[in-house]
Input
Amino acid sequence: MRKSLTLLCFALLSSLVLLAQTRIIKGRVADEKGNPLPGASVQVRGTKTGTTTDAEGNFSIAVPTTAKSLLVSSLNYVNKEFAIGNGNTLAITLKANDASLEEVVVMGYSTVRKTNLTGSVAKVAGTEIENRPNLSFDQALAGKAAGVQVNTSSGLIGAPVNIRVRGASSISSGSQPLIVMDGVPLIQGDNGQLYNPTNALADINPNDIESVEILKDASAASIYGSRASGGVLMITTKKGKAGAPKISYNTYFGYSQPARMMNVLDGPQYTSVINSMRTNAGLTASAANGDYNGDGITDNTDWQDKVYRKGITHDHQIGISGGSERTTYYASLGFNDFENYIIVNRQKRAAARLNLTTKVTNWFEIGIKSQFTRTTLYGLGSGTGAALSGVPFGPLTAYPNVPVYDATGAYYIGNGGNTVAQNTPNPVAVQNLNYDTRDNRRFINSVYGEISLLKGLKLKSQYNTDMQIGFTDQYWDPAVGDGQGLAGVAQTVATDSRVWSWFNTLNYNTRFGDHELGALAGAEYTKSYATFNYIFGLGLNDPLIRIIAPANYGTTGAENGIDVNNGLASYFGGINYGYKGKYLASFNIRSDAYSGFGRTNRWGYFPSGSAAWKISQESFWKSRLITDLKLRASYGITGNSNIGNYPSLATFAPTQYANIASLNLNNPGNSNLRWEQTGQFDVGFDMVIGKGINVVIDYYRKKTKDLILDNPILATVGFPGNTITENIGSIEASGFEIALNVPVINKRDFKWNISFNGATNKTKVISTNAFGNDIFGGQSIVRPGYNMSAFYLIRWAGVNSANGMPTFLDVNGVAKQYDHSAPAANRWTRVSDGAVTTAITAADRVVLNDKTPYPKFFGGLSQSFSYKQIDLSFDMQYSLGAYTFNNTLQNLVLMTGTRNKSVEILKAWTKAGDQTDVPRLFFGENQSTLGSTRFLEKADFVRMRNIQIGYTLPKKLLEKAKIANLRVYAQVQNAFTITGYKGMDPESNANGNVNIGLGIDAFRPYLARTFTFGINLGL
Amino acid sequence: MKKNIFNSFILAGVLLASCQKEVTEITPPDRLSSDLAFSTAQKAETSVMGAYNALQSADYLSGRALVYIDLLGNDIYDRTNFFGDLPRFNLLSNAGFAGGLWNAGYISIATANRAIAGLAANPGVVTAAKAKELTAECLFIRAVSSFYLVNFFAHPYNFTAGATHLGIPIVTENFTSNDPAANKPRSTVAQVYTAIISDLTAALADLPAVYGTAASYASKTRATKAAAAALLARVHLYKGDYANAKSVSLNIINGQYGTFALNASPAGAFGPANYETAESIWSIPNSTTDNPNTNNALPQHYFPGGRGDLAISTNFRDIATNPYFAVDDRRRNLIISGTTSATASSFFTNKYPDIATRSDWAPILRYAEVLLTYAEASAQVATGIDVDAVAKLNLVRDRARVGAPQYTIASFATKTDLINAILGERRIELAFEGHRFWDIMRVKGTVTNKFDGDGVTVLPAQAFGANKSILPIPQAEVDKSAGILVQNTGY
Output
């Protein structure tokens, strides 16, 4: 305090001097190419006197005659001091910062200049996220950072987005990274309550994001200790800059359609295929074409055409930012409306944000960052995906030889001319009559105060909240589908989720001589809680009145419960040290206590250390080719607290034996349960070649031990779900990562930039439980010594071209064929000699070690061009070496029922010599559709995620209208995907956010392809 | 000043420590620590009720298990193909139907064992007499599950002489951790039956006759002496031990365990408000708030106003293939036809009509069964045509055929004729209550005239002891056992 008084005195004094003797100096500030730099700060050295440049880069300042020099600064330019000579005009040129060197990286509770970084961190700029028709910002990260795999599991709105940083880090626990926005740990995952998934991250307005930093290695992530095994995503939202208010308006509008289609049989094809199946099996024909709506035309319905549409999408974003020397602000309003290509599927998001910081005094700063969002998701009323009333199950399997509407215009609910029933309800009817709507309100807020105690020492206290209140309103109409048998159903779920955290940090930074030292100490407490209230009504009295009241329903009921209830206490500290800017080292440690562990094993310690050597700054470094080179190495331990609320506690939960209250074991518990630990070693280098070619290469090796595993146990043990949570087993992963940025052409009028990243990952299972037992998920296996989640399937050996029978290899490699027309005991024969043999069974499954749902090499390639006022960009994502089990196709070639089938079945064997993969049509034959490698397909793909072409109007034209910038553009999202995969999408994933059992394509809706036209306007 | 700084550090320390406590010391408000599960009389009893709740699993005795037994038989067909290859005896070893049964069965056995151990470990929480009674309930539950499991997953008792063929693992101990001792091989069917009979005999001795009154909710849904005896009679019958089946069922008929009687109407024990009549001995209850939901509830499968998956085949309706089902039989009133275009041409049972709340109870032990078990056992042990058997058969038959003349000894030419009439009556009386397939198999019958989902296509006959006439041991369990659990032949 005393010090600031002194400063004040100086200021007063100097202004007195100023009054006495001044002269006016005029000048112009420009960049190296002569373009004016508006808003640059010009200050008289050693005084408070200063000004900023106007739109033309001109300034005028009164300087005391005693003044020696001017300090000129502008964002993204190197600050420069200019001596004041005798002249009264100055032409000042500022050099652009090398952005890659001056860039600041957010690392947990502090920031580090990128050049001083010792860990592995990838950064995705907000410009790569905003103004794109993504349903949530996480989708935009696909292909953007080396080693970060982002999988959008389907085109359904709200479908889970799986993010894997350097592969899976666990088997049973979550591998999703921790996501922290401005210090607030975000609620993520699926918020869906009834039949539709809801991605919690859809509540974040992508246009508010300034940058996303992905902390990949242990040294970067371990400051988040027990939550960092899956990596950490640090989101920084936009903030204001001192200067006149800037107003921006961004908008786009356009439409969506399915990005690809699987084809099923049309009416006549269906009738013919089903009847061939029946007659081949010696059964009566069961399908017949006919006219069931009385329009005189034989019914032939393409259900996909009826259920899909061109969905309209539009987006409006208003941003205002600005501020003074002391106070800066950023405020935004956003509205996004996305109609999916599936009828009724839609998401609307309205978001408001205010970020405000102010320096109350020279030593005290406070700030607030808050957003409020309302997201409404109109889901599919009675299930998604593979549910009977779901999409795409319905449109792919409904009878194609019946109409949508009957003669009276009502939905057609019948079997037409088909005598063998199937139970797919009218897909248009169930979508239009039923609904499942979720209305989410989210408030994310952080407030902080920061005090400068001494020079370089800052005390910061920040309180964070993430609150989410949601309401799901669901209805099944009594006329059709699931509601039919129940005379109509209405259900509502109200949810309330909240996370608070409070952290206090002491940050100290100092320099003495050639030494640079930073230190951090802190404490953080986090508590998460989520609860729900569920109400249902069965049997509507009046279908027009849907409010759930006992008078209006045959039965009503209610239930409430707790979904999340846990807390984390944490203490952490770190030291960074640099010598001569060449030798850098850092050490961090965090200790976490998690409420879900027993008292004795509650605390976990997560240390990390790293070092870097900027070899190019050594005097012996003479290379002109490689102008900058930094070697890095790190090792650290991280944990995983994504393990449920009370994993170690043996608990009973209240249950019901109808009207009698009962109590059942809920979790067998395990008081010895302790932290799962991932040790990760990383070595890499950052390099600049010639003029601005940036190269980052990393190699990592990580090993997770003491896995908190849902150990699959025998049913005879008698625990719920046949599992017990134990610390058993370990997995090991390694991989290379490369990121390249090449400014191929960098002329004033023509620029071409290429960004490329690629990564390999190989994750192996070292051990599971004491017996080395296998763990299963989907069609995959976890077996010691094999790759993580390798597919575990019976080997398909094709169709015997001589007789049309499906053939398989048994576990010993003997080819066996199946004839459903033979007596039960003689159906399986050896292909070699036709001798009757034992059946192919689950015991004939083999581990397909090199076939896993995880890609072997994946990444992205982005290119941007600009020519004068025109800009063009391509964003590509690729993934090689993964496999996907095409369960959709498996279901669409079933011969045991009369649901509609894939056109693949038209290739069925009909006569000796036919070379095909589809066996002879035979109703009831159920062995060719066993889970076998017949349906395992390569999921390699290259996806053009975004193509954008824009035109920026020339400045001269805009100046008259006082417009700072105006750009019009058109873009295509998910423009095309090059793949040999035959199912819905090579990235389809039916099992959500798991580590094993990924790569199952089970009726996941296609991705949407979106065309939009947009305007970016700045004032 | 120094003191102020010192004090503020103390204050900060206290604040941080209280925060740490708040976030790490969390007691779940929705769970009970397992040490407390048997700590009071009320908790001990509700923990025993948990074993019934395990039986009531949607995959198990609240409906599905009964459905499977009838689906494997020939009186219904899977109209909507809901059950896939189950009725075609063509399941794969990883079939979810089999996995659901196996898991629910063993969870209920474990829950019963856990309660037995919990009661023993907490003496004095309830009176010794009450502890005995509660333990007997657990023994009954263990026997129920063992009986259903052994019949689903192993061939009938008389498949081999002395029932030396593979049964199921017998579990009688309580496991609190992943104990390798739980990896048990399959005992023989004879051993399993011995264990069941021993559990039921012990339960019969200690169980109460009623809970409160004879017609109380608990008396019909919790184990009573009559329930234990009725199941014991069935177990003896399945075993082919007719002498014991006769004596045990006679005790029930004689009122030794309470008074039971047939209702006036054959429909009198079904549908809302009819679950607690004198005809019912033991049922698995369902309620509006606790039932197997839209996919598993009995009315959802059986009732045409529900999904109506399961339709009654002509094999049951035609007198040619169901010779004791006369046209005037009042039980034909329990057959209804559908009302929608999709169901109008099919026939359904009206035994489970509560589609509105899906809370139809699953009838497990009914007095009519006891009478028919007695009749069959008595007819079997008699040398000639047994009068008493005819009398008990008449009790059941007369109710349904009020106009027809009663059976007399003269109605039957041979003892076999009488037994056939009893089995025929049993098929009609206990139809769709989870008896049919096992009633065919236990007398070494063949399933013939069984229809596929279209109700027209005849499926191949399934002979006694055929490979896939029993369900596969879930492949996941076989895999986990590392060779200890042997899979059934053919899977």
User: Anything to note?
Assistant: Residues 436 and 474 of chain A are 4 Å apart (CA to CA).
